[in-house]
């Protein structure tokens, strides 16, 4: 038994005729007759009997007809649901964003995505890169913006930011006004960094250790504005992405453009290589890549 056979039963009852039902379904009369015969043989019952010029249902046929109406309606609704998904009228995307990334890049992108696809919902989770990678890996998130490098065996990705970290100090600090500072000159300074679950924490730590010292971390935070605020209060120095530094007030902090060595800050959108990507998620990847990589 299939949906086509049930639709034939419904149309024959509605039209009262095999010929008229065949015309409605755009098939020949012999075809619809064969379809009903095959169904009757499969079920072991007769579905119709002739009454004058019309066909009417047997008892068994009435049971089939009553159930067929609900099945046909469910099938129609299923088709509409699938059409909505394939045409981006329904669906959702679960996105992971580090706090410093979200406000800098994504409000306008999300607005454009919503304008293009008002039926698609976007759920945002803010965490550090390390946490977001694990959430994408286990399937709790569809995509995430993370600090490179990432695990190329697990994730596909495209990079959309390639900047460097810059040193920020209080305007009254002895290093203020310099164009470049060697990291070794900061060996005795108190550092204010992002928390350990942020990849940026590890990036700064490893670079300082490579330069011969372990930074003295006084405070940790998950918010770049809190970090810069602590620097403005003379509580330490920090390293923040160039894009964030460009938005800081020179009256509160002094940005030193160059560190030696340079610490890169490359961000990519990642998603799992293995596993299913919904129509909505695939469109988010295509849509954002088009915006960021043009």
UniProtKB/TrEMBL annotation:
Keyword check for Cytoplasm, yes or no: no
Pfam families listed in its UniProt record: HTH_1, LysR_substrate
Could you tell me which InterPro entries the record lists for this protein? Answer: HTH-type_LysR_regulators, LysR_HTH_N, LysR_subst-bd, WH-like_DNA-bd_sf, WH_DNA-bd_sf
What keywords does the record list, in alphabetical order? DNA-binding, Transcription, Transcription regulation
Give me the segments passing through the membrane: none
- A single GO cellular-component term on record: cytosol
User: Which Gene Ontology molecular function entries are recorded, alphabetically?
Assistant: DNA binding; DNA-binding transcription factor activity
Domain (HTH lysR-type): residue spans on this chain: 1-58
Highest taxon listed in the record's lineage: Bacteria
Record family assignment: Belongs to the LysR transcriptional regulatory family.
Q: Can you say what this protein is called?
A: LysR family transcriptional regulator
